[in-house]
Amino acid sequence: MSMKTTFRNPLVEQAADPWVLKHNDGYYYFMFTQHGRLELAKSSSLTGIANGLKKIIWSPEAGGPYSSNLWAPEIHWLNDRWYIYYTANDGGGDETRRICVLENSSEDPLEGNWIWKGVLPTPVAALDGTVMRLREQLYFLYAGYGHFPDYGSAIYIVRMANPWTLEGEHVLLTAPTLEWEKQGGMAINEGPVTLHRNGFVFLVYSASTTWSEDYALGMLTLKEQDDPLTAAAWTKSLEPVFRKSVEHGVYATGHNSFTSSPDGTEDWIVYHALPAPGAAVSLRATRVQKFTWNADGTPDFGIPLSDSHDLKLPSGE
Predict the structure, then answer these.
(1) 3-class DSSP state for residue 205?
(2) In angstroms, rounded to a whole number, what is the distance separating the alpha carbons of residues 222 and 201?
(3) Which of 17, 37, 230, 293 fits a disulfide with 72 by CB distance 3.0 to 4.6 angstroms?
(4) How confident is the model at residue 2 (pLDDT cuts 50, 70, 90)?
């Protein structure tokens, strides 16, 4: 009997804004945008997330507040509880979008009850919330709408008093001012996620519109000892750190998360992409690939590999 040693992308068809969390119980927890509900999948392997144990864990009351356009759900394990952050509105436009929080005290997030903790009070309409822990302090990062000076979204950070309460000033960290951040008809910085390594915090974000073939990942870098609420402490990369590959037929690469191989020896990027320029956004699919590190301590995400490329299974899978 031969053992499978490789896999191919995409891992999950029609799955945008993928979020993968590898928990200390050895399981991978996977969420993605499904518009009208929140579904959580649990898998013993990274490449098995499409076939993991699934459960619809939140279906808002139809027609109620925050019942439409449920986007970009993320699950986090904070202070020995589970929290989910997701974007929603009542069916209106950008100005009605807010970030909602759910809590579950069960050890297994597919068990127990998800409790509504409310909407996070951001000074601007918001989407794509995530949490960063630095020196035992929690920080909330999100994309907020406005004119910077073009209409679109920018990334903000604020301190958290606890996983459902924000405190203090909301600081703008990056706005879409570079040409590659303004493709597809809007100027966009969204989908923040952080990576901690080598004495740095890397804030990776998505730039340009998700329907544009030029949707790409940008990056800010902070020295770990510096104050993340000081915008000037972050250095912005002037070019994308991950972008489409015409040669490999992978376009609109963005809205990512990070995880590791089952044995913890490899770092993996999880992202969505389109199979062709101008493809319908409903065709965004979840892809994963291993990435490495440069000599200066920064991540090297490489280029997106084609769907016909045989990728080696994550180490320990």
Answers:
(1) strand
(2) 5
(3) 17
(4) low
d(CA 257, CA 272): 10
Question: What's the DSSP call for residue 96?
Answer: G
Identify the sign of the CA torsion 49, 53, 54, 55. negative
DSSP secondary structure string for all residues of 281-315 = GGG-EEEEEEEEE-TTS-EE---PPPTTPPEEPPT
Alpha carbon distance 13, 6 (integer Å)? 18
Catalytic machinery residues: 17, 190
Token output for 269? 């990027």
Torsion of CA 293, 294, 300, 302, to 10 degrees: -110
Bridge partner list, 20: 30
CB proximity list for 104: less than 8 A, separation 6 or greater: 81, 82, 83, 84, 112, 113, 114, 115
For the CA atoms of 253, 39, 23, 12, the dihedral, rounded to the nearest 10 degrees, stands at -40
User: Any bridge partners for residue 86, and if so which?
Assistant: 100
Give all strands of the β-sheet with 28-33 in edge-to-edge order.
16-22, 28-33, 38-43, 53-58
Give pLDDT tens digits for 59-93.
999 988 999 999 999 999 999 999 999 999 999 99
Specify whether the CB–CB gap between 210 and 152 falls below 8 A.
Answer: no
Instruction: Provide φ and ψ at 9, rounded to 5°.
Output: -85, 160
- Give the predicted TM-score (pTM) of the model: 0.97
pLDDT of residue 10: 98
Q: 128-162: string of b/e by CB count within 10 Å (b at 16+)?
A: bbbbbebeeebbbbbbbbbebeeebbbbbbbbbee
Does CATH place domain 17-311 in 2.115.10.20?
yes
In this predicted structure, the answer to whether residue 1 has a pLDDT above a threshold of 80 is no
Q: List the domain boundaries for the chain.
A: 17-311
Q: How many CB atoms lie within 10 A of CB 266?
A: 18
Which residue(s) pair with 147 in the sheet?
Answer: 151
